[in-house]
Specification:
With about 500 residues, this protein is α/β, with parallel strands linked by helices. The chain has 17 helices and 12 strands. The chain is globular and about 70 Å long.
């Protein structure tokens, strides 16, 4: 990963303040970047920015691996007076400290319908945007998906397979809906590019995130049916998930589509080359979620418990060598958590891709352990206090076993760490590891408890909704973060 010794913060845009019920690319996002820059933090990490479903609202299960979430487009930054002031009044009663996704999406959908007759997609800016073949294909998918309100394998034959004629057909049949989606995706790209450029000017790199798997009801699967493990009716016989372990005794069922890796190899992994490069265009660095899935993955019979899954081998023996000249590996970070495999370590070392250590997961819970002391962690790693899937530090400290607390206290003594806040001790311990990058969550900067946990793996409701109601709440924690960055030589100097 092409960075110097530095630090980062996980803060998904939906968690930003705004007047519209969900964080977006508006003025608060720019003010947040100013604040982050003042702390000397180099990396802003976001979760996937794609379209979420309307059930779990998970950024890790999207209808498209390349299109953006229209609900985080800033309404205030739209030009040409497309909305009136009274259009925004309905958002006033939405919660300020969490995202009520169902209400936000409903209100914004109603507002977006007003766009349908106001957009002329024949304008040069939109026609130039549609020159991107992949964007055109994915917009075709989300338009038909909206019109039919059905999974793609239940669509009538007219819509079953993509062609240029199909794009023209839906444009003739549903011109207003097509126009709406083109406009929203154009605005998403424009606004995100502007925000990222602003961050870069402040010498902040944006670390994006790409899930290894995609939703079955997605443009990716519809456009590439032969690349996925589907039966004759294009249904999933097996789905993705996680093996049962000490963290989740029942395992996890993710319900996303598995790949037919043999067919990917036949096509020289071109789908992955295209997808990775499309996402690398949006970010400065890119984290690949569930990286170990390239080596070994858990296949679960559709509709059954994760306990009934079985291991399958991934494509690692050919995958990395096939794409190494076509994808910039220096921009990649591997989320290699979970199953520990020697092959994964070898590939990461051979291609100089950093993996991750999460302190919460690397503090031993018994005396017969093989964990490495944090002071001896590999330099070419990203060390995290926790991730978006973890308990907050405050919650972890309250729930940790006695043996874990014993080792944790020993580590603090070894690093000579002692402050008035046990949470900041935990952050400082992570910052003092040799790792090239250290990262924490904004919830931990605020010293919050279980109520601020962003996601509880294995559950389908109540996740992803936490947000701050004002950036003013960040000032005290950001002051401590600045001091810690300076003391640990991780301060990012604005050039």
């Amino acid at each position: 990963m092409d960075i110097k010794k530095s630090s980062g913060l996980i803060f998904h845009p939906t968690s930003l303040p705004s007047k519209y019920g969900i964080g977006d690319f508006g003025k608060d996002s720019y003010e947040f970047i100013d604040l982050l820059s003042s702390t000397g933090t180099k990396v802003w990490q976001v979760l996937p920015l794609g379209i979420t479903d309307n059930v779990e609202y998970s950024p890790y299960s999207s209808k498209s691996s390349i299109l953006g979430n229209p609900y985080i487009v800033s309404l205030e930054n739209l030009e040409n007076g497309l909305f009136k002031k009274e259009d925004f009044e309905l958002f006033r009663n939405l919660p300020k400290d969490y995202v009520d996704f169902a209400s936000v999406y409903k209100l914004k959908d109603d507002l977006f319908k007003k766009l349908e007759k106001k957009i002329n997609i024949k304008e040069n800016i939109y026609q130039d945007f549609l020159e991107d073949d992949e964007i055109r294909k994915h917009i075709t998918f989300i338009t038909i998906s909206e019109v039919t309100n059905k999974n793609w394998n239940l669509w009538k034959n007219d819509y079953r397979n993509y062609s240029e004629n199909l794009f023209e057909l839906i444009n003739d049949r549903f011109p207003n809906i097509v126009s709406k989606h083109i406009f929203l995706q154009y605005e998403f790209n424009k606004q995100w590019k502007s925000l990222k450029n602003y961050a870069n000017k402040k010498n902040i790199s944006v670390l994006g995130d790409i899930p290894i798997y995609v939703n079955h009801d997605s443009a990716d699967v519809w456009l590439n049916k032969d690349l996925f493990d589907l039966d004759e009716g294009y249904n999933m016989s097996f789905v993705s998930g996680a093996v049962p372990d000490e963290f989740t005794e029942e395992g996890q069922v993710w319900n996303t589509a598995l790949y037919d890796w043999d067919e990917h190899l036949n096509q020289n992994y071109q789908y992955w080359v295209n997808k990775l490069n499309k996402n690398l265009e949006k970010y400065d660095l890119l984290r690949i979620d569930h990286f170990v899935g390239f080596f070994k993955y858990w296949a679960i019979p559709n509709g059954e418990s994760a306990l009934n899954g079985h291991w399958r081998d991934g494509p690692w023996k050919t995958f990395f060598d096939s794409i190494r000249t076509k994808v910039d590996f220096s921009m990649l970070l591997a989320e290699d958590l979970g199953v520990v495999l020697k092959d994964t370590e070898t590939i990461l070392k051979n291609y100089n891709i950093p993996g991750m250590n999460v302190l919460q997961q690397r503090i031993p819970n018994n005396d017969q352990h093989e964990e490495t002391h944090p002071g001896e962690w590999n330099k070419n790693l990203a060390s995290y206090t926790g991730t978006h899937d973890s308990p907050t530090i405050k919650q972890w400290l309250k729930e940790a076993e006695k043996t874990q607390i014993k080792y944790y206290k020993n580590y603090l003594n070894d690093f000579n760490i002692s402050s008035d806040s046990e949470i900041w001790n935990f952050i400082e311990l992570t910052w003092k590891t040799p790792c090239i990058l250290t990262v924490t969550n904004v919830q931990d900067i605020l010293e919050l408890d279980v109520e601020a946990r962003f996601n509880l793996p294995g559950t389908k409701k109540g996740n992803w909704k936490w947000r701050v109601n004002s950036l003013d709440t960040l000032h005290e924690g950001f002051g401590r973060l600045k001091k810690l960055n300076e003391e640990t030589n991780r301060f990012n100097i604005l050039t």
